[in-house]
Write a structure and sequence with these properties.
Layout lengths: L1 E7 L2 E11 L2 E9 L8 H15 L4 E7 L5 H7 L3 E9 L5 E10 L1 H12 L4
Parallel strand pairs: 3-4
Antiparallel strand pairs: 1-2, 2-3, 4-6, 5-6
Helix pairs in contact: 1-3
Protein name: Acetyltransferase (GNAT) family protein
Pfam families: Acetyltransf_1
Organism: Virgibacillus chiguensis
């Protein structure tokens, strides 16, 4: 299990967590406080998690995004995640939950492109 937090003046404003198994990783949570969105915090958290996972041999990343999540879906798609499938599960309260599965491969290339962008070389 991996996790990172983002701090601003000792206040937690973002968090990411995930795990790896057999070269494949799963992002379980990525959250940025609404007052701190669109400042690059989510991208930095994702980059830190990706860097650690690549160092440990990750070949691909997976994430589930709630259907209709108009913040999460464009965020992941802009960072190279590709839609794979829709999953439907029933909750304990008999509600139907729909999540969209996204993945990305070639994580070393992803890291390299992110480094170029950070240094203004894209």
């Amino acid at each position: 299990m991996y996790s990172y937090i983002a701090l601003v003046s000792m206040k937690v404003v973002g968090v990411i967590g995930g795990a790896m198994k057999d070269g494949s990783t799963e992002i379980y949570v990525l959250y940025v406080d609404s007052l701190y969105r669109y400042l690059g915090i989510g991208s930095k958290l994702l980059a830190a998690l990706t860097e650690q996972q690549v160092a440990e041999g990750a070949k691909e990343q997976w994430v589930s995004v709630q259907e209709g999540n108009q913040l999460g879906i464009p965020f992941y798609e802009a960072r190279g995640f590709i839609y794979k499938q829709k999953n439907m599960t029933e909750t304990e309260t008999s509600e139907r939950q729909v999540s969209l599965r996204y993945y990305r491969k070639n994580l070393i290339g992803v890291q390299y492109r992110a480094m170029l962008r950070r240094n203004g070389l894209n």
